[in-house]
Specification:
Distance between the termini: 53 Å
Largest sheet: 8 strands, mixed
Strand content: 15-25%
Helix content: 25-40%
Number of strands: 19
Number of helices: 14
Structural class: alpha+beta
């Protein structure tokens, strides 16, 4: 938690003049920068924390940092060209800061707007400013979202217009083409900035795409992990999705896309993006080979959540549950399972209706089997069985034994009762 003296801020950038996706290429934790101050100048002090926000349709929080100076007057004179091309430099006030965390993709605006705390950010009420105050509660929520999840979600293009999807699918890979290149592993980059320097001798450097190339290949080489989920896109369709099962590889064979990772495809059914939310469609239409997605976005792509919202449990949990049900010969849509799971979490009592043979009973039985059981301990010796029984096991003066202990008991045949000595709470 922040101290009473420390304040928190949100600084906004306009991508028309200062695109964070480009400006942050090569920047790392600990790098320094300066920012315009157009308001709250007397209230900002060294040690205050700041979230860096980009406006626009792909807007969101890209980074956090700490102020390292008091606000000060700009000393340098601006040329006419600088004033026209970078109007944000017209502000008289500046403040220095140090970056504490930088994301590869922002915490998206939609996620922040739907957050129970961050929906109250002042930038959503009045966006025409550069500096905004942030409450301590909002800052703590931002810090939680800045932490990279253990599992990430990705979109990758399968060649131009999905032309290479057949290779991706049949060879169980995702891949990127880079002409006149060698293995990224052989280059041994220590950071994205280091990779950028080493890519300058490739076609990426000569074509002027060095920043984009460094970001793209660093994501494939280092940021993507085994266990991440990835979908492929081409010509307005999600072509398939699966789980990353291997590390970065450089393979020289008949396929020109030599930079690869192994993938176990969970679905190869083409799904048009026309049914997705407007925000997700616009993101997928971006002219970028690969970028990360939020869990909510991937849930919508895989059908676990619809365009109107997320259905409660995590996308990974629901996808694994679908796979388990499918292996048992039971086929439900992601929407059906997500709705059932959400209903159980909301009320704890669900009524399923429908004609016979549609799988109502099987859904409940198999779903229950996948849930973690109560922690009960049992000790079996030659002459006794010790077990922990929930309070619900005592009904109407009768002692109800869980079916899980059935095999431990030498039960008599029907019609042949036998006394069993039982100790309950230390009393026989």
């Amino acid at each position: 938690m922040a101290t009473n003296q420390q304040r928190h801020w949100l600084f906004q950038a306009n991508p028309k003049y200062y695109d964070l996706a480009t400006e942050f290429v090569g920047k790392v934790k600990g790098d320094t920068d300066s920012w315009d101050v157009t308001g709250y100048r007397q209230e900002m002090h060294p040690g205050d924390t700041v979230a860096i926000w980009q406006s626009g349709q792909y807007g969101g929080i890209w980074a956090t940092g700490t102020l390292t100076s008091e606000p000060y007057d700009r000393s340098e004179e601006l040329t006419t060209e600088e004033r026209d091309s970078r109007p944000y430099l017209k502000a008289n006030g500046r403040v220095n800061l140090r970056y504490d965390s930088i994301r590869n993709d922002p915490i998206p605006r939609l996620m922040l707007q739907e957050h129970h705390i961050l929906s109250g950010l002042s930038i959503f009420t009045f966006a025409n400013a550069t500096n905004f105050p942030v409450t301590s509660e909002q800052w703590d929520a931002i810090q939680e979202l800045m932490i990279d999840p253990k599992r990430r979600f990705w979109k990758i293009s399968a060649g131009k217009g999905g032309s290479e999807w057949q290779y991706f699918r049949d060879r169980s890979i995702i891949a990127i083409e880079l002409k006149d290149s060698e293995s990224i592993a052989d280059l041994g980059p220590l950071s994205r900035q280091d990779l950028r320097a080493k890519l300058e001798v490739t076609s990426w450097g000569s074509e002027g795409n060095i920043g984009y190339g460094a970001r793209l290949f660093w994501s494939l080489y280092r940021e993507m992990k085994v266990g991440d989920l990835v979908c492929t896109y081409g010509r307005g369709n999600i072509l398939g999705w699966g789980e990353v099962t291997g590390g970065y590889e450089f393979v020289e064979d008949d396929f020109l896309y030599q930079h690869r990772r192994a993938v176990e495809w969970r679905s190869t059914t083409s799904v048009p993006v026309s049914g997705f939310s407007n925000l997700l469609r616009r993101k997928l239409f971006r002219n970028e080979t690969m970028f990360s997605l939020t869990e909510r976005e991937f849930a919508e792509i895989t059908g676990v959540a619809g365009a109107n919202g997320f259905n409660g449990a995590t996308v990974v949990d629901l996808l694994l549950a679908l796979e388990a049900l499918s292996s048992a010969g039971l086929h439900f849509t992601p929407w059906q399972l997500a709705t059932f799971s959400t209903a159980l979490q909301t009320k704890g009592f669900v009524i399923l209706s429908g004609i016979s043979g549609t799988g109502k009973t099987k859904l409940v039985q198999h779903f229950a089997a996948m849930l973690p059981s109560h922690k009960s301990k049992s000790i079996s010796t030659e002459d006794r069985i010790v077990m922990t029984v929930m309070n619900s096991g005592l009904k109407y003066g009768a002692f109800v034994i869980s079916v899980r202990y059935y095999d431990m008991l030498d039960l008599p045949m029907p019609g042949h009762p036998r006394d069993i000595k039982i100790s309950l709470n230390g009393e026989w």
